[in-house]
Amino acid sequence: MTGLNSVSRGTAVVPASPDEILGLLESAVQRWKPNILDLSHAIHADPELGGQEFRAVKRVRRVLQGAGFSFDEIQPAQPTAFSARFGSGELVVALCVEYDALPAIGHACGHNVNAASAVGAALALAAVAERLDITVKVLGTPAEETTGGKVDLIDEGFFGDVSMAMMAHAAASDVVGGSSLAMGMWDVLFEGRPAHAAAAPSEGVNALDALVIAQTAIALARQQLPAGSIVSLVVTEGGSAVNVIPERARANIEMRAPSLENLKIIQNKVRRCLEGGAHASGCTLQVTPSGNAYAELRQDAFLSEAYRDAMTARGREVAFSAEPVASTDMGNVSRVVPSIHPMVGYDVRGAAHHTAEFAAFGASAGADKAVLDGSFGLAAAACAAALDPAQRERLLRT
Fold it and tell me: Which residues form a coiled coil (predicted)?
């Protein structure tokens, strides 16, 4: 692991060999292993939806308090977000803790693994915080699956003092360097005028017609969208009775693109399709963003390779892939501070994310190993950067 040699603190130099630092990290992970795994299992067994993760937050806070972390005087506005820290060094390492589940299928994206590995990394870094002149900052980031809690924390300034940010994500295999798709979600409402569908249809203004026209226009527009674009639409309301002209029609639209810039192109075109449906039918249109827009993920090259080195040393085969996978609000974080979001793998017997089958393996022995390895890997990556003079200077300039 290059650069793990010494760190200057004023005029003093504190020697630190790679083996010494990595040994301290490993000792800390082993010391806190019961707490880390108990946290993962407890969150897995008690899934909570985004913005409602009150019990998960209590569990995370309890572990951090027991390790001597203090909670910042100013806390995020969201009730299930938090900001805690250990140490007082100028280089601030942020660990992002996700803990929200999915409706009906629990932790089918493995956020209990994400949460526990981030907390484990924070505990490991606390053991070397004074030695490396760093501050370990832990941010509880709710609602990744829905509204994007990290974006709110960015807007509120909680990443303003951060030098680097990191987390690991549960997966079927180990991958570094991957990107994600920018994403935006809208709630759409068309409103018309009801009428008897047989006795007086001409007196009605059909909101479902507006939605059908808009959906058809979106389908035709897909050919002209930027490469890699995805537009998904589901109708959530389309009328209440077959003999009544629908007064209201609702839909949820999800738009994804390789970049925020391309996402804006998609959104402009989709909005015109919606407006076309409203104009053709005579309905009114209301478009409401559902949560924050997600940016594409940009992973830091140095931190990614340092993480890969550490995980390889633990016997893991870590692939590199720049391919975009799904969407995450960690992408927004990566646009304001150097970040990593590697995938940490365990055996899920071929199950895909966001399925009950994937959730079933979240507290398995393989998942537990992924939590501990991920804790070590993230902490080791942060230490590699902290002790590399050029990287430390780069990160302090962010």
Answer: none
